[in-house]
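Q: Hi! New to this. If I give you a protein sequence and the SMILES for NAP, can you show me the bound structure?
A: Yes, paste them in.
Q: Okay, here:
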Amino acid sequence: MSDITPEIAFIGGGNMASALIGGLVQSGRVPATILVIEPDDRQRARLALQFGVLALPFGGSSLAGLPLVVWAVKPQSFAVAARNSVPHVAQALHLSVMAGIRTDTLAAATGSARVVRAMPNTPALIGQGIAGLYATAAVTGADRALVEQVLAPSGELLWVYHERDLDAVTALSGSGPAYVFYFIEAMIQAAGEMGLSVEQGRRLALATFAGSTALARQSNDSPAVLRERVTSKGGTTYAALMAMDNDAVKSAFVRALHAARERARQLGDEFGASPDAGGNGASAAPGPAPLPQIPSPRANGSRGRP
Ligand SMILES: NC(=O)c1ccc[n+]([C@@H]2O[C@H](COP(=O)([O-])OP(=O)(O)OC[C@H]3O[C@@H](n4cnc5c(N)ncnc54)[C@H](OP(=O)(O)O)[C@@H]3O)[C@@H](O)[C@H]2O)c1
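A: Thanks. Here is the predicted structure of the protein with NAP bound:
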């Protein structure tokens, strides 16, 4: 019997929790210091087998005294999950990756003022995400360092200073992977219309996105300068960009991001307005799209179900 005591509890052991746990274990954290509360028998067995963590069906008193609690259930499940755990976690630092549940709601439900909200995105599943982070005033420097330790293996971190900025983070990077996939889809469609195969279109589109973002990251020049450098007047790129300008693609895209930010704000209002944080008012609101099931040795969150 191990005498190592858990130091981090994950409430919810689904895709996002698996991605974070996988990163933590791979970065050297002792699995026995991680406790996962997960009601699904098969998922608990999978977590224990894959990562060697302790997985229990209910929180209750097993959560007492743990320094960090990570909330990784769907927002709609938060109220029930919180009810089972709350009497034991008021002294803990709370890190939430749940979309739309604000820190005042989390603080009221957990009894702890030390709350950090994170907005991750799906590339976290392969360690290449970026998460926006917001901390309440009661969160200490040591708390922030602990949160960074937990999230850093899943990708980059960006602290914001106003909670409302997390709605913008949601619009930019939280929902962002879907925009990238949308443009990749369009490139594959165009490839097909021009006589290339789907696979050829896919390879060309993916390599172009990967190469261009890597170039933009390494360069000191702005994206606008990089774009101008590959756009000679009267050339092919110029023809494409003129066609996009004629269709007002950029302003439509910017409007789309504003729509996403507004929806994030509304969802926050709906969850906050619900008396039991995720109860009736919240359940009507659609949560973020489920994470894709990406098999990966370090972050395999596959549940074997749709
Ligand atoms: N912006 C983004 O791209 C993004 C990305 C990742 C995550 N997120 C956020 O991360 C959170 C988790 O998402 P996910 O995709 O990991 O969801 P998920 O795969 O459905 O995982 C949630 C897990 O929590 C379990 N659960 C349900 N009720 C519970 C309870 N009372 N106590 C303990 N565990 C409970 C669920 O079990 P059952 O299936 O048996 O109900 C499930 O295994 C969500 O709040 C989501 O908003 C956002």
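A: The pocket of NAP is lined by residues 11-17, 37-40, 43, 72-75, 77, 80-81, 97-99, 119-122, 174, 287-288, 290-291 (CB under 6 Å). Let me know if you'd like me to explain how to read the tokens.
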